[in-house]
């Protein structure tokens, strides 16, 4: 029996150009590795693309510049290497913004075509990908609403409602306990029980020191190929997994919000180029 520690919803840098100057990929990737090497056991870190920003591809490129013997057989889906007698995997995930909320895709390749959740579910079904409902049932307070407004986004597009979960529960793989909104966990647990859906937790990290803040433990995940990975992941969900949910805290929440506001403003002013 092999136990894996999984944290599937995280966001790394897109390595933008700030006033014509690029971030150092090697240095940034080394910083990420330094942080995750502190964790024990076999690790699975998901790197989520958002708005097709190719964060996973950018991180993979940075890893290839370092002196690690990477297993790249299925690099479009995941890659790995051995360290201190354990295996560390990096998995491509994708956070998609729909008309009904944000959803995390695992084992999905290519661009999603539309903003409709109904359309997204059809695309996910074709690839037999895993789909997790992100930070659901959240009602944004005034401070968070102002951040969303500054970003040009709407509250209802961020967080799926209970009615949506009930309507599409047969197509969903799991519901997320998001560390930024711990006061939603009780009602999410209640909804998961009502709709008979598994729960997962993750870090939704935006800074390297936040990886594996929250995670799940799964047994015998099969990384032979993308198909066996998806099947073994679903099998583990049905069997039952260990949740290790940890609150992000106000500092992390507002640090992330401040980052988003600055990023959006810099993009509008042309200071940052993708």
What's this entry about, in short?
With 274 residues, this protein is of the alpha/beta class.
How are the elements arranged and paired?
Blueprint: E1 3-7, E2 17-18, E3 21-22, H1 25-36, E4 42-50, H2 55-64, E5 78-83, E6 86-98, E7 101-106, H3 117-127, E8 130-133, H4 142-151, H5 162-168, E9 174-177, H6 185-195, E10 199-201, E11 215-219, H7 226-239, E12 242-244, H8 249-269, E13 272-273
Parallel strand pairs: 1-4, 4-6, 8-9, 9-10
Antiparallel strand pairs: 1-11, 2-3, 2-13, 5-6, 6-7, 7-8, 11-12
Cα-atom Rg, whole angstroms?
18 Å
Approximately what portion of the residues adopt beta-strand conformation?
15-25%
**Count of domains:** 1
What is the global morphology? globular
Number of helices: 8
What labels would you give this structure?
274 residues; TIM Barrel; 3-stranded antiparallel beta sheet; 35% helix
Could you describe the 3D structure shown?
By secondary structure, the chain is an alpha/beta fold. It has a single domain (3-251), classed as Alpha-Beta Barrel (TIM Barrel). It is built from 8 helices and 13 strands. It has helices at residues 25-36, 55-64, 117-127, 142-151, 162-168, 185-195, 226-239, 249-269, and strands at 3-7, 17-18, 21-22, 42-50, 78-83, 86-98, 101-106, 130-133, 174-177, 199-201, 215-219, 242-244, 272-273. The strands form 2 sheets. Strands 1, 4, 5, 6, 7, 8, 9, 10, 11 and 12 form a 10-stranded mixed β-sheet that branches. A 3-stranded antiparallel β-sheet has the order 3-2-13. Strand 6 (86-98) and strand 7 form a beta hairpin. The radius of gyration is 18 Å and the shape is globular.
